[in-house]
Amino acid sequence: MASKRTTKQRVTADDDIEETSNKRPKLGNGSSDPLRQPHHFAAEAEEHGIVLRKYYPPEMSNARARAYNDDRIPRPIEQLQAAMEDTAAARRATKVKDAVVHWFKMDLRTTDNRGLWEASEKARAADVPLICIYVVSPEDFEAHLTAPIRVDFTMRTLHALKKDLAALDIPLYVETVERRKDIPERIVEFMEEWGASHLYANIEYEVDELRREAKMVKMLAEKGLAMEVFHDTCVVPPGELHTGAGKQYAVYSPWYRSWVAHVHANQELLSPFDPPAKNSSAAREKVAALFDCDIPDAPESKRLSEKDAKRFRATWPAGEREAMDRLEKFCEEKIAQYSKRRNFPAEGATSSISVHLAAGTLSARMAIRTARDRNKTKKLDAGIEGIQTWISEVAWRDFYKHVLVHWPYVCMNKPFKPEYSNIEWSYNSAHFEAWCNGRTGFPIVDAAMRQVKSMGYMHNRCRMIVASFLCKDLLLDWRMGERFFMENLIDGDFASNNGGWGFSASVGVDPQPYFRIFNPLLQSEKFDSEGDYIRKWVPELREISGKAIHDPYHRGAGSLAKKAGYPEPIADHKNSRDRALKAYKAGIERDKP
Ligand SMILES: Cc1cc2nc3c(=O)[nH]c(=O)nc-3n(C[C@H](O)[C@H](O)[C@H](O)COP(=O)(O)OP(=O)(O)OC[C@H]3O[C@@H](n4cnc5c(N)ncnc54)[C@H](O)[C@@H]3O)c2cc1C
């Protein structure tokens, strides 16, 4: 790992996301540390936000978020880098004992998996078995608000992965560890039981994970074991790209230009890693018992009904082969038209590989390389337009992960722009319920919300429309929507979801300016002009023909809509727009000294 330690460490990092206990002070407790003082509207955001207080301490102040911006608090990635530096000599000196372990997390594939490949090389060189593990953590699923459909996809993927690894004589050992705190110790216990000296893993960039891994690196070193971690999930590792002034980019376009130039200059970033080598027969013998391990069921709290599980198996087949098939098919049939068709939700013109990128059944490298190889040029920003555009969309995923690593407080209920903490949101539960259930009376919004409820997926254009509707038309706290998405999406990914909500709510990095407010009716007419998408997902409106489908109660189809049980609009766009503009303006004013 490249290392870059901050020199201005005047504030401790530990308090803002470590696992909390009931002893923690409640909000508004009069803490004397100004960096810990919550902002004026924190109390309600606390109740409705993305962070579950059962697991995390109270929301930080704007001042503390700004201390991260000023490099006065070490970022979690820097803590991991420091742990790697401090243990470098000890890790180098650690001799391979009886086995090497790869710890799978969100990298559930054998092909083009950097950490797995490195682990395999280590095991092969020493002629010891490679063992793979996956830890099912019900508390992690709960704390991270992982949707049951996403958990189900993970469990199904584990079955496929186990089979693929077994074909290479490599066991996949899966165990449920109830308390997330116990995971590091349990992994050390496995290693000691198996005589393993080395643990390999790819880095996850969420705050919890970075801090946990930093502690594990040190803990293992103290026990004479070595933990090695690798950048794998992004094409360009976070922290590699800087503006001319040496800062992290906060605007996508210049970041993208820099990302493209960096990949062009470092072509190996798109080179695939081979699958792991087969364990030798002697090595296989040594770990034979581990092949009998069963994959547990999803934890009770995240289990799907039989009916849903069956349905989703058909809609979202799991495993890396499925991922590659989906990608190849998209590149064969649709990518050339992507830039022209991608915004029309009725057309299915996008790849729907987000589920695989989120679970790690596909690498971003592989996605980009496969698309690039269909082009007439090796340049990422030249040639066939559809390919260029698609690659630039996959790059958004890297962008938002870079943002998360540099501004870790976005993981902690804080908007990227701290001053947007001071907006007085509405917490109208009837409005929120109508939005969640696709009963707002705005057909395009309702169609999209019903799509996510039914499939665990929503088209990108619709994600932007419903997000804008929630926070601008209904003035609901954007974090309520962010959380709902995580709890319902099969492709829920913290960085992309937070980035998407930040963009739509105008509180994030490179956002839609707050005064640019989507008009849901115009969006509907433009991107679903024939109403096909609406008719697919809102059966009550199927009989309505022509343009009335976009707004039945104001376009002469009110009685048909009413008879079919479709609700009247819960808001008036013009009034809502004015209210949102005032609320945003007032929020920003409030932050001024
Ligand atoms: C409010 C909101 C919430 C979102 N939440 C998530 C989420 O939880 N998980 C998630 O993967 N994406 C999220 N996105 C981004 C985007 O909507 C999905 O990645 C995309 O719809 C997935 O469909 P696809 O695979 O067919 O995309 P394609 O159009 O085929 O794009 C290919 C890939 O590029 C990446 N990508 C495309 N657009 C974006 C984007 N705007 N931001 C980040 N990555 C992008 C995805 O990995 C996607 O799979 C969100 C967007 C918004 C506006």
Give an account of the 3D structure:
There is one protein chain. The chain is mainly alpha-helical. It folds into four domains: 14-74, no CATH class; 79-286, Rossmann fold (3-Layer(aba) Sandwich), CATH 3.40.50.620; 301-408, Alpha Horseshoe (Serine Threonine Protein Phosphatase 5, Tetratricopeptide repeat); 418-591, DNA Cyclobutane Dipyrimidine Photolyase, subunit A, domain 3. 47% of the residues lie in helices and 5% in strands. It has helices at residues 42-48, 62-69, 76-86, 88-93, 114-126, 138-143, 148-166, 183-194, 207-222, 252-265, 281-286, 306-315, 320-333, 338-341, 354-359, 364-372, 385-406, 429-436, 443-455, 460-473, 478-488, 494-504, 520-527, 532-537, 558-563, 573-591; strands at 99-104, 130-136, 172-176, 196-202, 226-230. Strands 3-2-1-4-5 form a five-stranded parallel beta sheet, with helices on both faces. The longest helix has 22 residues, at 385-406. Flavin-adenine dinucleotide (FAD) binds at residues 342, 350-354, 357-358, 393-394, 396-397, 400, 460, 463-464, 467, 485, 489, 491-493, 496-497, 499-501, 504. It comes from Hypoxylon rubiginosum.
Q: Helix and strand layout, with pairings?
A:
Layout: H1 42-48, H2 62-69, H3 76-86, H4 88-93, E1 99-104, H5 114-126, E2 130-136, H6 138-143, H7 148-166, E3 172-176, H8 183-194, E4 196-202, H9 207-222, E5 226-230, H10 252-265, H11 281-286, H12 306-315, H13 320-333, H14 338-341, H15 354-359, H16 364-372, H17 385-406, H18 429-436, H19 443-455, H20 460-473, H21 478-488, H22 494-504, H23 520-527, H24 532-537, H25 558-563, H26 573-591
Parallel strand pairs: 1-2, 1-4, 2-3, 4-5
The structure holds flavin-adenine dinucleotide.
